[in-house]
Amino acid sequence: MKSLGTTWTAITPAAPNPGPYLVCRGKLFEAYRLYDDTQGAFFTGILPSNDFQYYDLKIGGVIAQTVSVAVPSRLRHLASDETPFAGLRVAVKDNFTIQGIKTSLCNRAYYELYPTATETAGCIKLLRQRGAVIVGTTKLASFAATEEPLECIDYQAPWNPRADGYQSPAGSSSGSAAAIASYPWLDIAIGSDTSGSGRRPAHWNGCYAMRPSHGVLPVDGYTASFRRFDVPTFFGRDLATCRAFASEWYGNMLPEVKVLPPRIIYPLDYTSLIINKYQLSVIEDFVFDLEAAMGIKQEKVSLASLWDISPPAEAGGQSLGEYMKHACRDSFFYDDYHNFDSFRQEYQDMFSEPPYVSPPVRWQWDLSATITQEARDTAVEKLEVCCRWFCNTVMREEEYNTIVVLPIENMSPRYRDEARTHFDPIGVPMLFLSPIIRGPEFTVPIDHVPFKSRTSGQTEKLPVAVSLLASWGRDIELMSQIQECLHAKGRPASVSTGRVLFSDSTLV
Length: 508
What we know:
The chain has 508 residues and is α+β, with helices and mostly antiparallel strands. The protein has helices at residues 108-113, 122-129, 174-182, 199-205, 239-250, 268-271, 277-294, 303-309, 320-323, 327-338, 341-351, 359-368, 373-395, 433-437, 475-488, 504-507; strands at 21-24, 27-30, 32-36, 42-48, 54-56, 68-72, 89-93, 133-138, 188-193, 208-211, 231-236, 262-267, 299-301, 401-406, 441-452, 459-469. The protein has a 12-stranded mixed β-sheet, sandwiched between helices. A two-stranded antiparallel sheet has the order 1-2. 45% of the residues are buried.
């Protein structure tokens, strides 16, 4: 080594942590490896400083139109009781503030208007305090709304790595899910979920996602959409890692829960919406395995019929669909729209013109502007009525530890170059159920659905996931039950990066 010019340097009195370093002008610098963001999942790479502030990396990738993400060596970080996340590489959706970094919400007007953040969001601060390494911020559907790639105007949508590579990444946490499904060097990605923004991307990008019990994690520094529904969420590729992450991130904030007999609810109202018969058979096979592992039988129920049999007094004889027709929309849309009143006004005042927003956001805002405060308040009251009814009548929370099986949405090709109809929730869509009852929902990738791709001309495999909903506070218990089921039935408990969910290594 000496013949190659290597010199030995002794550092006293205290040696640094293990790992690669550079010595320059007598100073020791940590070495990072740069990775190209080939899937366009990141908004920016970031670097930490010792004062809990961050800096934009501002380095382009080797491949055109990519950014670089700087990743430290895993050798450098030593886990302890105080830092259980030491060395864990985490990406964060760009609707959480990070001190020293500008927040974009993937809208150029918003990014232009506001300065760098002076505080890091509370739930993200917890990660760094526990030793996690924040490597960058990820893209999202603008304003955490509902956009397909063709509708993402200001910043190009991330690329879903699954199947033919030209499928929608869904949203709004598209960048976080695509990054986890693409990059083995990334461990966890943080997203948010109001009405499906975490669960849909997990479904389409083929990864695990946890929507925690509502109100447990802090939401300061998390751009509000509808606080009654808003929850920080996270994505991962390995169930055991996800469970451990949830336990350390917020497990100590959860209440102690009573041990109750398990129960599985299979709601026909939602499974009947799945027209892809192959997907439905995959879900049913999973439920059969869940039955066998838990030693119980599923209960197939109609929520609409249960409501008719035992309705809440507040419904006044209306059916579930009639009573809740616009409750989700009028509550959520009203708050979401007015949460950006100051943004619209401040931009107008500074630039003498309204800010540009994408067509789906404009459509939603135009509709939201017509909803009155009275309609919003009535809708919120209906959410509470529905919550109490569901928890008491369907979940029977005092008697059982109930798991509700949800198929998320029908799986068929959804190409990047296709737009979609406007988002207008009617009744109680399945993605609104966990927000309404405030319970945890864990999304689990379980198989593929084959299809003939018009892009590759080959038979490709779309990922299929299923969501499991439990009562408030039973997050860790839910994940443990699913982990035990997968182990007992020999199902894979991790997914690979790239085109398909399960490689030979994940099937072992």
